[in-house]
Each structure stands twice: as structure tokens, then as C-alpha cells.
Amino acid sequence: MPRPHITALLIDLSGTLHIGSTPTPRAISALAKLRESQIPFRFCTNTSKESTEELGARLKGIGFDVRGEEEGEVWSSLGAVKRVLASRGVRKPYFLLTESARQECASAIPSYDEALQDESVPYDSVVVGLAPEHFHYDAMNTAFRTLVGEGDVPFIATHKAKYIRAPDGELSLGPGPFVAALEHAAGVAAEVVGKPSRRFFETVIGSMKISESGRVAVVGDDVEADLGEGAVELGLWRVLGECSRSLYTRSG
């Protein structure tokens, strides 16, 4: 199939432009050429192990010209969590997130700090991202008890990737298996707010000034987490990077 006229790009970060604190081959120069071309683009990341601000600072530190979320260039799953929490009117989510990611998401809830200190206020929602230090029995059990408590408790996941590319280049478990465990135990389905949800892509594309002609392309290293579901439903031109973790096959 011939490549269509591309009017804009949605570009994954971790695993596509960098692995840990190491740029992927030719990524920095490719980004510079893309800026020169003046083709509109956005960075779309499911990274939730660190705040969006920390991620931007780290990328700048390794040589990328990445402009901040406040400039509308970086769209993260944590930003999507903030928008959902603000719209749902929750007071006290139970966060399975790293500390910096928790602080970023909690900033969307004006009364969160007060509710957190008040033990009489129950958790009223569960948010799960990539937080290895929190994926232990006590924390998972608190999330489970919150989900099976009274009322309709929002269950929000940044994404459901089964595995991620770790800084050492090897594959490690993503948040997906832990989200799936809670779904199975509590009998509820998580709402995925990051990639590859259709709403996430629609929100990002809506922020761009692009013509109706041509197509938007999405670039990533994971067929499911970056290029699946919403990207397929919206008819985006999907580009799988050569550092793809989807090339992983299990032996035995």
C-alpha cells in the first residue's frame, strides 16, 4: 500500500525515541529534521513512572529538543488521568503510582490533601500506572477493597501494556498484568485513559491545526499499546519503529 500524504504525526517517546536515558539511533537528528519540515506533531507518551515534568527534563538532559506540556507538545497518560479525575468529582483516589506521578495527578483535585489526612474519608476511586514499588500484596489488596466497596468506584488505568522496555534494554512487566489482576478479582473493567484509547488520540489530534486532506500518522514501538485500538478505529497511518518490543517472542 502506498504511503498517504501525512499531515501530522503522533510520536511515542519511551522505546521509540529513547530507552531509559539513551536516545535510540538517529532519534535526535530525526526530530531536528522534523521540526525543520514544519509538519505538525505531538509527543504521546504512556510513561507514568515519573511525572511529565521530570520526563521532559530528562529528555532535554540527553539532547532532545522537547518542549513542555504547557506548550501543548507533550501529551501524557498522566495528563489524561488529571482530566478524568477533574471531571468525575472524586475526592480521594487510591493511587498505585510513583510519588511524582501521584502529585501530578492529585493536583487536579482541590481537596485531595485534606481528604488524604482524614481517615474518615474513604477512598472513592483507584488509579493505576507503572509503580513497581507499589505492586505488593498490601497495596493491591487496598485497591481491591476499594473497588469492591460500596457504590460505583471509578477504576482508571494509565495504560495496560503487558511489558515495557527497561533502561537496561531488557523487557520488564508493565502495569497491564496488575490492572488485569484487579479486574479479575473485583469483577470490574478498568477505564484506560492513555494510549491506545480512542479518546486519547481524538483529544491530541483536536489540539492540532491540521487540514482535512491527508492522514495523521502514529509512530510507536508497540503494536498494541501504541498502534492498536483507537489508532485503528480512527484510521491513523500506523508506523512501527525498528526498536519494537513487539518483536519479542517467548521461547519454550
TrEMBL record:
For this chain, one GO molecular function annotation is: phosphatase activity
InterPro entries listed in its UniProt record: HAD-like_sf, HAD-SF_hydro_IIA, HAD_sf
Coiled-coil region(s)? none
Please give the name of this protein.
HAD-like protein
The protein's matches in Pfam families, at most eight in alphabetical order, are given as: Hydrolase_6
Annotated GO CC locations: cytoplasm
Record-linked PANTHER family: 4-NITROPHENYLPHOSPHATASE-RELATED, HALOACID DEHALOGENASE-LIKE HYDROLASE DOMAIN-CONTAINING PROTEIN 2
